[in-house]
Amino acid sequence: MTIIMSSEYVFVSVIHASFNGYLIISYYTGNQIKVTNCSKLCIFDLNIRQILIATPFYLHFFRFWLLVFNKKKIYFVFTLAIIIIVTIGPLLYMMSGQYFEINIYFLPKRGCGYQIFSDIPFYTEIMYFSLIVVFALPFILFFINCLIYRSVAKKLYNINRPKVMECRKILKGILLQGLFASIFQVPPIAYLVYYSLTRNVFDNLDITVHFIYFAGYNLYVFFTVVGIKDLRIMMLKDIGINNMIKPSFVHNSPFISKFIL
């Protein structure tokens, strides 16, 4: 999980740096921006982040299925395919209309000057559905981990109580992680809904919303990969690394550790 999320974050950072580098170079060299290509790169830069938000959900769902439905592998593939279609399918549908230039139109937007939109059927409705899915994923993830905890507690309570306590601590860490992700997603989603309805752009508000979004996502990654010690121990075990750091939960209160890895 750590390796996958870190690799995705590096890839998204490279895409974001490339897009902004293109804008900066074009601005200082005086070269004319190709609106269509710039807009498509901007769309990819924005939408690729939804995969980052969905990745922890996929990985924890895989963990949940192994614990609860260990032997039903055929159903797992089918269920995971449905989940991917629901979470990523709307995004691909919208991007297909924009990238293949199906009934497209342009609206003013900061950066490239204009943004490509598509008039394919149900574009607006699917866009709202995609936003709802992104906002709901942290809550669904927490619910899945509650089911994981109940399953482990039921099977191991009388056999291995330390393991049950470890799962409870990890569950608290995931709750804190999801809370930050949800809070920082509210302003960007509200702004996107407003922009979708009015098509009005306010540069200062747009910059502020993007700053909040990136700050929230960085905290989300920090809590997932580094900040919460019990989550870090769990992920180190997943990749086969033994870690001697003791859990950081004392008296059932979460404590965010210092940067160690």
UniProtKB/TrEMBL annotation:
TM region positions: 9-28, 48-68, 75-95, 126-149, 170-195, 207-228
Keyword terms, alphabetized: Membrane, Transmembrane, Transmembrane helix
Name of protein: G_PROTEIN_RECEP_F1_2 domain-containing protein
Source organism: Strongyloides papillosus
Lineage: Eukaryota, Metazoa, Ecdysozoa, Nematoda, Chromadorea
